[in-house]
Design brief:
Helix content is 33%, strand content 17%. A six-stranded mixed β-sheet has the order 10-9-7-8-6-26. A five-stranded mixed β-sheet has the order 1-3-2-4-5, with helices on both faces. It is elongated, with a radius of gyration of 33 Å. The termini are close together. Helix 3 (56-68) runs parallel beside helix 5 (122-133), helix 9 packs across helix 11 and helix 11 crosses helix 13. The protein folds into five domains: 6-132, Glutaredoxin; 135-234, Glutaredoxin, CATH 3.40.30.10; 273-377, Glutaredoxin (3-Layer(aba) Sandwich), CATH 3.40.30.10; 382-495, Glutaredoxin, CATH 3.40.30; 506-618, Glutaredoxin. By secondary structure, it is an alpha/beta fold. The chain is built from 24 helices and 26 strands.
Length: 704
């Protein structure tokens, strides 16, 4: 089990989707025609229909847009009626069309379209686009047996229309006609008989060359274009039937997908959400609503899986707050009202902002789940940091009595102690408290009698008092530096438990500490004796270089797969393992025949320190790469940037100007961006909690 696999189950760092900002979603024929008109003479269009957002075909289109989105305009729909309106007879399956708009200079002329007949997979789309980039028609004067084009390299046959000088113009028109009819099915070339050194039978006017090596060419007499098309299609049909007989592979099950979010959304598509618990906003109602009362606004797009998954969590929050909160929960569909979202500086979806009268909006940066959003809303009922004005009020604050209704959402309260003249330090702490609002309760005390509190809790001013309500403890931390960023770091580190239970939700917070993980794997609750032994070593500073934690396989089943990757066979539990992810990748196991007590643990750690213990395995430091080169989109983009045209063409070839050259790039999208269907960026499934530095350090490049 790779650490990457565990990360994929988290609501934290790794994206579940690629970039979406090059794709336009449309719902009717008028939208499609507007985009066509805007791009005529400028760029081509890749138009696709999928049954639902988030299914494999949809992700394949998005991955292709990630690579080719700067060259072609990608357009997407899920509307069957739109597919029918462009003349498609098959509305049961996903479809993809290539619209040749760059060739059209007359705005009254329609763009030609070519249908991709293969299933919508990433590889098939990639190959199809490469074929669309190839010259429509090529003139050759070489031996057909020696001619090779991109079509042949991609497994498509070649059709040579044999021409001679006397009939050149008519033959070329015929060849172009055939090329359009066979686009995506075969490559078409105009073979100049008069320039050939190799003899072609005088009666033959068509040469058919298969992609398979060793298969002889066919010299044919076909005087009708339809006969040429039929011959090619019949041979392709035979090959497809043979492949189907060899590969008895079922099509993708739309109810079982490789993306858990998309799969959940699709399975729950018929679930009726009580949307009436939230207020739907529009361009006309947005400003008036957010200015009239305190609001939580969800910015989302209704065609994207992550948005729809989070919408369910958002409604769950509305259910929990029903009748108990003065905060109005609202939502706006940015697919319908993109201008509103742009004005609110929202370019990622889903996104949540809190609006309060007279204050700047507050962006929610926590995990996209019900409990975390509920905590954010409840803790924002008061302003931070709270200004404490008396010793009695400070004691009530530290005991949890002052805000006892919020203690369930924040297990720790932080009180900053400052002398009245520490102006800069107080300002920095206030900035830190404001930054952390919605995540932890913070207060400030700077009255003349602050020394009474500092003496009672042995704190040297300026200082922080951390009241841990679940443990009933209050500890003091001196502030050597009062910079807001340093204060935030101290508080967030203090929120971490000494010996936590690791889950998929909290692992990133501990992983960013960049220390080896000392993990006690248990099939249920751990023995209090083991916990006390490890906590004792923590107090004695033996474990300062490690992150001690435990993992309950019943609560986090993915841990069993991790152990199976370390051990063969799996030893009995509980099992203590040291995993050095950040340096070396070694995995050490505490001897299973020894009791987990303080003396044995200290001896084992000393052996590790001097190198007397051998690792049970060493995790490879290899980078995570796509399973196939065809899916290495970043490499494709790099290659495209450095060299746009890498195709080899035969000598004496002349490309027709009917198809654009590979080197040409579409740069001017200003006309498209003025259309009402705005370009949208989709938010990654998870955002880092508080620190960009934590996000940078969280690199899942080793196995756990």
């Amino acid at each position: 089990m790779r650490l990457l696999d565990l990360c994929r189950t988290m609501e934290f760092q790794l994206p579940s989707a690629l970039l979406f900002n090059e794709v336009k979603y449309i719902t009717n024929l008028e939208d499609l025609q507007n985009i066509e008109n805007a791009l005529k003479g400028k760029a081509n269009i890749v138009f696709s229909y999928v049954r639902a957002i988030g299914i494999p075909e949809h992700r394949a289109v998005m991955e292709a847009a990630f690579v080719y989105g700067t060259t072609y305009q990608f357009v997407l729909t899920t509307e069957i009626a739109l597919l029918e309106s462009i003349g498609s007879e098959d509305v049961e399956n996903a479809r993809l069309y290539f619209f040749h708009c760059k060739l059209v200079l007359d705005l009254t002329q329609q763009c030609r379209s070519t249908l991709m007949e293969q299933p919508l997979t990433t590889l098939n789309i990639h190959l199809f686009i490469k074929i669309m980039k190839a010259p429509l028609l090529t003139e050759v004067a070489d031996d057909p047996q020696q001619v090779s084009t991109v079509h042949l390299q991609l497994g498509l046959p070649l059709v040579f229309i044999v021409s001679q000088q006397a009939t050149y113009e008519a033959d070329r028109r015929t060849a172009e006609w055939v090329a359009w009819r066979l686009l995506g099915k075969a490559g078409v070339l105009l073979l100049l008989r008069d320039s050939l050194e190799v003899n072609i039978p005088q009666h033959a006017n068509v040469v058919f060359k298969r992609a398979e090596k060793g298969v002889p060419m066919e010299f044919l007499v076909l005087h009708d274009v339809d006969l040429i098309i039929s011959h090619v299609e019949n041979n392709i049909h035979v090959e497809e039937i043979q492949e189907d007989e060899d590969d008895d592979v079922e099509g993708p099950d739309i109810d079982t997908q490789d993306d858990e979010v998309a799969e959940t959304v699709y399975r729950d598509r018929k679930r009726k959400l009580p949307l009436e618990l939230t207020v739907e906003l529009t361009e006309e109602t947005f400003n008036a609503t957010v200015m009239a009362s305190d609001n939580i606004v969800l910015f989302y797009v209704d065609w994207q899986a992550v948005s729809m998954a989070f919408l369910q969590s958002y409604i769950d929050v509305a259910i929990k707050l029903k009748g108990t909160s003065t905060m109005l929960l609202t939502r706006i569909n940015c697919a319908d009202w993109p201008d509103v979202c742009t004005k609110q500086n929202v370019t990622e979806f889903p996104f949540v902002k809190m609006y309060k009268k007279g204050k700047n909006p507050v962006s929610y940066t926590g995990m996209l789940g019900t409990e975390d959003l509920l905590k954010f809303i409840q803790l924002n009922r008061i302003s931070y940091p709270v200004n404490i004005t008396s010793i009695q009020e400070a004691e009530e604050y530290l005991s949890g009595e002052l805000y006892k209704d919020l203690i369930s959402y924040s297990s720790m309260s932080v009180l900053g102690l400052f002398s009245p003249n520490m102006t800069t330090a107080k300002e920095d702490f206030s900035e830190a408290g404001n930054y952390l609002k919605g995540y932890v309760i913070t207060g400030i005390y700077s009255e003349e009698d602050v020394s009474l509190l500092s003496n009672k809790y042995a704190a040297t001013l300026p200082a922080l008092l951390l009241a841990r309500h679940t443990e009933g403890k209050i500890e003091s931390i001196p502030l050597a530096s009062t910079h807001a960023q340093d204060v935030v770091q101290i508080i967030t580190d203090a929120l971490l438990e000494t010996f936590p239970e690791i889950t998929v939700e909290n692992l990133p917070s501990y992983f960013r500490l960049q220390k080896p993980l000392l993990i006690l794997f248990s099939d249920g609750s751990i023995n209090p004796q083991y916990k006390n032994a490890i906590l004792t070593l923590v107090k004695q500073k033996y474990l300062d270089s490690f992150t001690p934690c435990w993992l309950n396989l019943k609560n986090t089943p993915v841990g069993r797969g991790i152990l199976q990757a370390y051990f063969d066979p799996l030893p009995p539990l509980p099992l203590l393992v040291l995993v050095n992810l950040h340096s070396g990748g070694q995995v050490f196991a505490f001897p299973s025949d020894q009791a987990i007590i303080e003396e044995n643990l200290v001896l084992w750690l000393k052996k590790l320190e001097v190198g007397l213990e051998n690792p049970i395995t060493i995790l490879p430091a290899q980078e995570w790469k796509p399973p196939l080169p065809a899916y290495d989109f970043l490499s494709m983009m790099d290659a495209a940037t450095s060299q746009h045209d890498t195709e080899k063409v035969p000598k004496c070839m002349k490309e027709t100007d009917v198809q654009e050259n590979d080197k040409e790039q579409y740069e001017d999208k200003s006309a498209v961006r003025k259309e009402p269907i705005e370009t949208l960026r989709i938010k990654h499934w998870n955002r880092s909690n508080w620190f960009k530095e934590a996000e940078k350090s969280f690199k899942c490049d080793k196995e756990l």
